[in-house]
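Extended Data, panel c. Modelled sequence:
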Amino acid sequence: MRYCMTFLLAVLMTAVAGCRPPSNPEAEAAALKAAKAWVLLIDEGRYAESWDASSSYFQNLVSKEEWTNQLRGVRGPLGKNLSRQVKARQYRTTLPGAPDGEYVIVQFQSSFEHKNAALEGVTPVREKDGTWRAMGYVVK
């Protein structure tokens, strides 16, 4: 799980620091929709369901039990989500440490009951069936 969180954080920081690659508005919109639906599961405390709805890549990195335990420790103390605004989204076909594919790095500026300003990151990947699914999550 630590690897998954660290991996996503590294990807987010690379995206912020690097130059902007070409965009793909259609893919970005579909991935953003998937990311919003996925973090809603987390907001509702449906951690096991968020694992079920994640990408196969993600599920191979972390077990459902590890994921739910980590989220309880990370998200539980933050309390209820009060607001979430899209800060950035970026289409990529490569990510460090991940196979080539289609990814959209989504950053949210969020506010929680017990943390006024937080940066959340979700990176959806387009699966072989064409569905966008999250491959990781980080909140800081």
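The radius of gyration is 14 Å. This feature is highlighted in the accompanying rendering.
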